[in-house]
Amino acid sequence: MLSLKKYLTEGLLQFTILLSLIGVRVDVDTYLTSQLPPLREIILGPSSAYTQTQFHNLRNTLDGYGIHPKSIDLDNYFTARRLLSQVRALDRFQVPTTEVNAWLVHRDPEGSVSGSQPSSGLALESSSGLQDVTGPDNGVRESETEQGFSEDLEDLGAVAPPVSGDLTKEDIDLIDILWRQDIDLGAGREIFDYSHRQKEQDVDKELQDGAEQEDTWPGEGAEALARNLLVDGETGESFPAQVPGGEDQRALSLEECLRLLEATCPFGENAEFPADISSITEAVPSESEPPGLQNNLLSPLLTGTESPFDLEQQWQDLMSIMEMQAMEVNTSTSEILYNAPPGDPLSTNYSLAPNTPINQNVSLHQASLGGCSQDFSLFSPEVESLPVAGSSTLLPLAPSNSTSLNSTFGSTNLAGLFFPPQLNGTANDTAGPELPDPLGGLLDEAMLDEISLMDLAIEEGFNPVQASQLEEEFDSDSGLSLDSSHSPSSLSSPEGSSSSSSSSSSSSSSSSSSSSASSSASSSFSEEGAVGYSSDSETLDLEEAEGAVGYQPEYSKFCRMSYQDPSQLSCLPYLEHVGHNHTYNMAPSALDSADLPPPSTVKKGSKEKQADFLDKQMSRDEHRARAMKIPFTNDKIINLPVEEFNELLSKYQLSEAQLSLIRDIRRRGKNKMAAQNCRKRKLDTILNLERDVEDLQRDKARLLQEKVEFLRSLRQMKQKVQSLYQEVFGRLRDENGRPYSPSQYALQYAGDGSVLLIPRTLADQQARRQERKPKDRRK
DNA sequence: CACCATTGTCATCGT
DNA sequence: ATACGATGACAATGG
User: For A494 and B5, how far is CA from C1' in angstroms?
Assistant: First the structure.
């Protein structure tokens, strides 16, 4: 456990440091929450070259770069990860069969409402008023509430038994509208059945007209274009490949409507309708005729009310989509998603893969992002205008309260929708009024946080485009400022083969050496010598191999060399009194070079040169050893295990100076190898980090894409929920058979899955209260 | 001569 | 307490 923590911490720190060195500013948390593979790798160690890193290393690192280890939060990471996966799984979410219970709540002053409510007990008390939903923080709330809302509706629709209800003309109109909405939203194809194709085509034709007006697409016939662009009529966005999906969506929406109607059969009766909705606090346009209602509901999302994900978010999404195309990093899913012909920018950007479970329909995305669409040069003015126009046409239906719509949606709680009531925890059941959604919390914490992090990351110059570029260059040359990193790699290349093995071997060797030393197991020090990086071993071996021959110390040289070593100073006087001992094991050539004064032997020029060469090959410690007449090789001194080393020393009667020198030689020699190992390890670490950076960038790109997909699907679900809400609400009738005014009443999901019709004021209050919660929690 | 990379060495810390 | 490895810092060296 401890080691794992260490690895994690160090790896992340090092990685962060490297990134900072490279010039990429990285939010560690972001990567923690988004990069699993690298993280795991770091934790497990394979990629961490600092397997033997010491604590002081960490300390130094921290000191040097001011990175706080606390920034690493595994729990958050895993939690976010899990939650995200859950959220992403919403598409395949299995809606549990539930009972639909609806209660009509009369608009009583205050407390009376609660009395009329079922066991679920809505938290009307908590209501603080949703009036000003337009506030800056609306975005988050809105998204949360919308999610819950959509979820509930989804459940409702799925649960409701299919019934062939008799649709009135009005209903059909509504359905058509819903169809279009679905198309715009890019609802998943697989979701829909093809039963209503015929009808859809009619609608498509209408849309085609609008689509054809738009600019022509490069490389594709006008016909094909018209066909493909059908969907965009309302939103002004074009999805070349999405048409089929759009049809499907329509079909689906219709079916859903039918089911919903069926489920809510008892419409006229006492305003009671069965619905499995957790909490619909608002989302009902204040005033509106049937057609207008939907528009109003949708308009918030389509236009600019998508505040939860601000402009930058939108930007990100779009950019990520584009970059995804550019990058081949895409996973299989991504590839599936983007199978549009690369040539056409629009087509590529907005094409929907027919088979993708999650709709990649960018147009939908943009539709919801209307507010930010202006920022995109990519979109032709026409395209931009289209969505607005479409929404505007619909808007008239519920002109009075665009804000009310926003507020209502903003306050809605998604949590209950996405997860079955039982999953929502006890809080929901008991604290109905407060409508605390576990899911909402989850979404809030995980998804939104991630999103915000992503935004932040992009904000800080790590934009998707760059990432994509980097991605492209990964194989050849990383666009990252890794020039430096590359150079090291090239530098290390000579050792390349050894570097990778060295890291592993070094660690193993060190461990083995230590173990052997401690256990005194190693009988052959030569092995240990081979273990290290020591290049000296070769020279030493050579020297040793040359055999022991008489050796004449050259004092002048010794003196020069020994002055560095304090221990030598003391020994110098001693040396003067020592006679030449030719029995030392020293290389004869070396002896010659050292012993023979150049002037004395003019005729041995070549030999002398060789001697000089060999002499130069000798390390300073070797010279010192020779000067001190150490009876064994430095290699032995350095590499012999402690026990053998001591044994060796005991065999000879060595002076204090000699012993001191020997110990220094051993110390220096070991340290020398250690330094070499350390440097190599450093290099390996850098290389590994470099690779990790690349991996992380790849992962980031992938996660961005996933995020885009998720957001897209989320929007789709929101749209559906809105539509369904409208449908249900529009069909509610009071005792007198009159429809309820959206401005005065709203549907609300209870924690137990029931749906209540409550006065809007209460709904707003509740919604507002809910909105406040997550915020507080975050702080 | 300045600059840079490499290498050796020392001091220090942790095991 | 000792030996040892790891590593930052410094210096020597060579290009």
Answer: 15
Chain C, protein-covered positions (CB within 7 A): 3-9
Enumerate residues 6+ apart whose C-beta is below 8 A from A722.
A146, A149, A150, A153, A181, A283, A294, A297, A298, A301, A409
Which residue has the least CA–C1' distance to nucleotide C5?
A: A674
Which residues on adjacent β-strands are paired with residue A758?
A: A746
Report which of A695, A619, A700 is spatially closest to residue A664, judged by C-alpha positions: A619
Q: CA-CA distances (angstroms) from residue A389 to A178, A204, A345, A547?
A: 17, 17, 24, 96
Could you read off the pLDDT of A581-602 as tens digits, one per residue? 222 223 323 333 333 233 333 3
SS3 A31: helix
Predicted confidence (pLDDT) per residue in A82-131, tens digit: 444 444 444 433 333 333 334 344 343 333 333 333 333 333 333 333 33
Residue type, A255: E
Distance CA A712, CA A715 (A): 5
Protein residue nearest nucleotide B10, by CA to C1': A668
- pLDDT, tens digit, for every residue of A411-467? 333 333 333 333 333 333 333 333 333 333 334 334 444 444 444 444 333 443 343
Distances in whole angstroms, Cα of residue A518 to Cα of each of A389, A481, A513: 81, 45, 8
Q: Provide the CA A657 to C1' B4 distance, Å, integer.
A: 38
Strand C proximity list, CB < 7 Å: A 50, 52-54, 56-57, 60-61, 506-507, 510, 513-514, 517, 641-642, 645, 666, 670-671, 674-675, 677-678, 681-682
User: What percent helix, strand, coil does chain A show, rounded to 5?
Assistant: 65, 0, 30
Contact A363, A237 (CB under 8 A): yes
Q: How far apart are the first and last CA of chain A?
A: 31
Distance A56 CA to C9 C1' (A): 15
Q: What is the DSSP string of A390-441?
A: HHHHHGGGS-TTHHHHHHHHHH---HHHHS-GGGG-HHHHHTGGG---HHHH
- A60-CA/B14-C1' distance, Å: 13
Altogether, the residues listed in chain A come to a count of 779
Q: What is the nearest nucleotide to A509, using C1' and CA?
A: C5
Separation in Å: B8 C1' and A617 CA:
14
